[in-house]
Amino acid sequence: MADTTEKTPVPRRKGMTRRQKRSLSRGIQYAVFVAAVVAFGVTADWGRLRNQFAQAEIAERMFPEVITLALKNTVLYTVTGFGVGLALGMLIALMRLSSVGPYRWLAGVYIEIFRGLPALLIFIFIGVAVPLAFPGTEIIGGTYGKVALALGLVAAAYMAETIRAGIQAVPKGQMEAARSLGFSPGRAMVSIIIPQAFRIILPPLTNELVLLFKDSSLVLFLGVTLEERELSKYGRDLASQTANSTPILVAGLCYLLITVPLGFVVRRMEAKAQEAVR
Known about the structure:
Layout: H1 18-43, H2 46-53, H3 56-61, H4 65-96, H5 101-116, H6 119-133, H7 142-169, H8 172-180, H9 185-215, H10 231-242, H11 246-277
């Protein structure tokens, strides 16, 4: 016998699906971006911008000194500051993980203070307060030593928390396995735990290096000589002499010569770390 029961038609959804809504939203964003770029290109006075920021003669006069002096000093300040920050950050991270209460308290106070204070105040403190507090005392390395110390104090607060998180991310079984093989706690930490932690935290540490590279511009508050100028100070001095902003643009491009490749390295390391987790 044939089934004469009428089937209730399934109602069709009205309106757009989620995928269609996402596509529409993305299209609107692209359209707004393109419209903003076109509007900027049409309304901007490119002649005045070129005269103020793109004078080829002024840019040519900056070479090779902008590389051999300004960029070299910037890299030197950054690398030495990063070294000081890494060593101090490692010490503070181990203090944070210590079973001794006063160590944890001191490390916590340091981190909160130096993460909360602007880097500018740290530079002023090193340049002004230290000589007043300790008359006749000279920081080793002169200006280079002061910059390394100031950048290191700022970076150590951030690196300490990064290193601590990396150490805690290493499975506890690694320490237990090392102890079962006869390693002391200190030797196990240095030989087993810390190397694994650094593989985890290498991308954020490289990011910190990029930030320090830009913070090195604060060296001008320490009062530097002509031979100690970094990129920002060098660009500003020439901009004042020439009454033109081309030196500032060239200095900015020199920063990008370092920060862009470092950013690429960070992204590659993060991608490899994610692949290793999978």
